[in-house]
C-alpha cells in the first residue's frame, strides 16, 4: 500500500508538471518529458524499496507455543539439551539456580541464503543488579548439541553467536552498561574470551536492560546480502532499536539454529517464548548472482575484522583516560609548534646575515 500511494502521488505530480504553464505559456515539450522521466524513475525507486524484500515464515525452523515440535524423537524438529525443559508458557533453558546450563537446537539445517530470526525471550530472577547471570545466546552454527562454557555452548564454534550477556566479568572500570547484546562470528579456531566479556572478537553491540521486565522483550537478527543486522525491542513500544549493522559477514548455508544459556555462582531464569525464522526473498541483479555463485562461502568470516577490532580497542577508555589523552596530545602539538617557530627564527636570522 505504501508503494502504491507514493507512486500514485508522484504520478499525479508528473501530470501537474506536464501541464505546468509559466505566465500563460507551456513549458517546452522536451523539458516537460525530461521532468516526467525523472518523476517516473523516482516512483520506480520508491516502489522497488517497498517491494524489494518479502518474508515467509518457515515453520519447520520455528519454535512457538504449544511447542509440539519439541522432543527426543527423530520426527521432532527441536531437541532439548542439559537442564532445558518445556512448559506450557516457555522453553526454560535454565532455572534460577546455580551451575545450570541448557539449550534447544533445531534438527533441520537451514539452507536459506537470506533469512531473519525474531526471538521472544525473557530473563528474570531473584538476584539484584549485578548479582545475576550469566545470560543466553542465539546460535547459527555448524555444530549442535554440544555443551560448553560459551553461554552453555561449546567454545571454538563455527558460525554466528548473538549473546545477551547479563554479567560483567572484566574487572576494569570500562564504560559499558550490562546487560549487553553482542555478536561474534567463529571459524572453529577462535575462542570466546569469557574474562573480557568477548570484547576481542565482538562485531559490535548495545546495552539492553532486559532483566525482570514487565513487558515482552524481543531480539531481531537479519542476514541479507552478507550483511548482519541485530536489533532489540525491550521498551514495550513495539519498535525496533538498532544494535548492530555490519556488512561483509560471510555465513555458509546448511547450519543449525539454536538457543542456550548458563548460570554459575549467580543465576537467572532464561526463557525462550518463541523463535521464528523467516525466509527473505531479495531482488538481485544478474551480476550479483554471478558473483555469489563464484564466491561460495565455506568458512564463516568477516571482512576487515582487523579494522573492527582497532575501532573497538578505543571503546574501553574511561573519561579520565580520554581527558589525559587529549591533554597530552594538545601539549605535544604546542611543543612541536614552539620548536618549529624557534627553528624558523634561527633560519630566518641566519638567512638575513648572509645578505650583509
TrEMBL record:
Q: What superkingdom heads the lineage?
A: Eukaryota
Transmembrane spans = 320-344
**InterPro entries assigned:** ConA-like_dom_sf, Intracellular_Lectin-GPT, Lectin_leg
Its placement in the membrane is given as: Single-pass type I membrane protein; Single-pass membrane protein
In the UniProt record, which is one GO cellular component term? COPII-coated ER to Golgi transport vesicle
Keywords associated with the record: Disulfide bond, Glycoprotein, Golgi apparatus, Lectin, Membrane, Metal-binding, Signal, Transmembrane, Transmembrane helix
This chain belongs to which protein, by name? Lectin, mannose-binding 2-like a
